[in-house]
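Fold these two proteins, one after the other.
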Amino acid sequence: MLLVTPCAGCHIVGVEMKDLPVVDDRVAAAKLNQFFDEVIRGLALPQQHTGRSGSPDSCGNDSDVEYFSNGDYSPYQLVIFSRIEGVPRTDILPALRRLKVFAESSGWAISKFGPSGSKPEINELSGMDPSSGYGFTIDALYEQGAIAFSVGSPCLLDPRDSRAKRGGRSSRGTREQPGAD
């Protein structure tokens, strides 16, 4: 069984909801896809990823979430999960090292590079871009000849969120929705 957890995103301890960035989900999705592409570029493997899957998730406690009539909610986080399969065991660690070097040279912070669980070998790399709050977690699956990973956005407020109207930080590209809750 493969378990991949979301990364850097929705850690909001000590952050007030009104201080979260206000970002339209389409803008956040475009930024997340760009970040995903940078992580893929950093791994520099000839194998293709198996596709992108994921969905928005709520952030914070249930009492922090504001729901809209169309089923959307705020605050939210976007996460993408993917895998790269058919990677020879001997190519997995070098790919993680390449991504680590790429991430550090891009100014990203590395939060973990080492073993995970009871395995002695390096099988996890996690980090984030502190300028955007977008982050990643890479899991080396040596026995399966694969790399599994997730990339995620930070916790964001929807422009329709009542807290956004009281002073949340706005991001370019937000949209107003006439008649939206």
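Now the second one:
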Amino acid sequence: MHELSIRSAPDFHRPVRIWPFVVLAIVLALVAAVLGAGFAYSNYSAQEWRSSANKSAQDLAAMTKERDDLKTQAGDLQTKLDDVTSQYNSASDRIRSLSNEKAQAGDQAAVFATFLAMAQQVTREMDTCIRDQQIFASYLANYRPSEYGAALNSARQADTDCNRARADSDALSRKLSG
């Protein structure tokens, strides 16, 4: 037969064990401490990142301003360089122009020197022509049949010298007219 076992009713007066509550409290305190430390660390880390980001933003703003200032300076320098280049080109053009003018003046001086030499030659030949004509005129003014040969030679000499002076004068006139 079965034996019925009778169990006794629970004993409500049994001593309550406290150590699981203490362990639980310690574990919860440790978890709270770890969570608090994690929160404090993440809060501190966030502040450091924020501070670093603010410093980086300030540095970036300063570098951007410096870059913009340098761009402005570069633009100013480019403008000045363009002005100097323009002045240099103008000066080079003027120097070339003056060189050409000097060369032309030198060429003109050479032409004028040639004209002067030709004019002096014509003047000497005209002087000779006039002198020869004066000599011939004196033969005609004081004509003596005995001086007929000398008068004829004088006329030929005057004719030769005057033709030479006329030819050189015509050559000078042609050269002067271009």
